Structures are given as structure tokens and as C-alpha cells.
Amino acid sequence: MNITLGDKVVLVGTGAVGASYAYAVMNQSICDELVLVDLNEAKAQGDVMDLNHGVVYAPSTMKIRYGTYEDCKDAAIVVICAGAAQKPGETRLDLVSKNLKIFKSIVTSIMDTGFNGIFLVATNPVDILAYATWKFSGLPKERVIGSGTILDSARFRYLLSQEFGVAPTSVHAYIIGEHGDSELPVWSTANISGNQIAAELTEERKEEIFVEVRDAAYKIIESKGATYYGIATGLARITKAILNNEEVVLPVGSLLEGEYGHEDVYVGVPTVINRSGRKNIIELSLNTIEKEKLAHSVKTLKDIQTPFWK
Fold first, then answer.
1. What residues pair up with 279 in beta bridges, in sequence order?
2. What is the dotted CATH code of the domain comprising 150-309?
3. Which residues have a catalytic role annotated?
């Protein structure tokens, strides 16, 4: 089913991630209209003013304004960046209880407007909150997407590009599973322009690269309090893929219904994205070890998630 709404995007939550996302969208002129919604109206109004002062230098004119949940009724995409932030030493899964309560209120308020577009969820723990958004909204799974492992995969591709001296766009490699500590690198399919690269690295070096990917957020949070540029750019990329009906494959959070042998859980997996949201999941040919690690990642999420949905 194609969504026939225009190119209006509503951003809920204008903290560091949300504001950075708005900035990325403005710089790329991804949508026709961007509406900012936040409990802190003064902060959001300030962001609107600041962003509008940059529109003159953007690729094309777009409308940026402050709004309310009522603006969601005719939005093509609602991007949720609101919620409690991850603190130093705190894992993404530690945030579950706090953010589930916040999300129930947000999603219910949005659905009450008659919203019939696509949810894009970025708040952590993103896999569990994407699942919660799907549950709370009652929308088809195709229209609730998590940011998944789009940032983790970008970190992976960047590090591999540095390792092999090529552009990150020429590296084709995925991190899948939880956006968090149980995620896994799919070395078996990692390649540069079709050439497999796993055999060119020692097991020790592969582990070093993966650990750097996995722990990147902790290092950034320790250094400056939060991560936002990378994820904001990833969210902008997903938004662009949806609005332009690209049918591009991106590692986003998708509901598994038997794919990879798992179900009833959102995890980051390569997914075809188009104007309807998620089109279908691409199943990579995982080796035995990778299958075991993905099963562990799914179990990690379900062990946290299940008690809330009994």
C-alpha cells in the first residue's frame, strides 16, 4: 500500500538528536515541510528560528515551523526523538521502563489525531521502543520503523574504509541485531566492491574493529555527553529513502515474523525502504556463529521486552 500523503515531516523531541536531525533535513531539503514538536516550546521555537535563518543557503526552500501533535494528522512521517537520554555508564536497555511510559503518551496522542503515515523511531532502547510504537499505534508493521543498526553499520563501514583505504560508500558491510551491546558484525558477507574482506583480517583485528564499533557510543558520551550527528544523518537518510520511494536497502529496525528464524521482535536488519515504509527484509546468508550471535541478541531484547507485554 502506498502512502499518498505529501512530504510533511513532524519531529517529536528537539533535544540533541532531534535538533541535529532537523539541521540535516534542512541542509538537504529532504521534505517540503518540517514541524517541530517539544514540551519545551521555547527551545523548539528557538530551533525553528535558527533553522529558518539557514534555509536561504539550503538546496531548496522548505517550510520549518513549530507545531503540536495535531500537526501529525496529515504528516507523511513522524520521527520520534523524545525520551529520557542515555547517561554515562547507562546502557540503552536501562532506559526501557522510563521511555515506555513516555512513548505510550506520545504515540496515543499522535494516533488520536488520525495519523496514518509512517513512524520513524530513534529513541533508545530503539528496538524495544519501535516494538512499543507498533503495539501502541496499531499500525501495520511496514509503517513503524526503528533506526535499528543504521548508525552501527555506518561506524563499521567507516572503520573498514580506514582499514582498507577506500571510501566508506564502497564498503558493503552490516551490523545487525540489537542497537546495543549484543549486536553483531556480519563478517561473512562484508565486502569491498564484491571482494570479500574477512579473510584479509586476523581474528584479533576483526574483534578490535567490532569492539570499536560496539563501544563507540560509550566513548562519545563520555567525551561530550551524547551522540547525535551520526544518528541524525542516518535518520535523514531513512527519511529521504521513504519520501523519494527509493527502494534502497538500509539496516533499520524491522519487525521479524519468521525472518532469520525469529519473530515478534524488532532488530536491525537490511530492509528495503520505499514510500510505504518497510517493503521487505533482506535475509543475509549467516554462518553458524553469526546465527548463534543473532539468536543471543534477540534473546537479550526479548528478556527485557517480554515482561512489559504479557
1. none
2. 3.90.110.10
3. 179
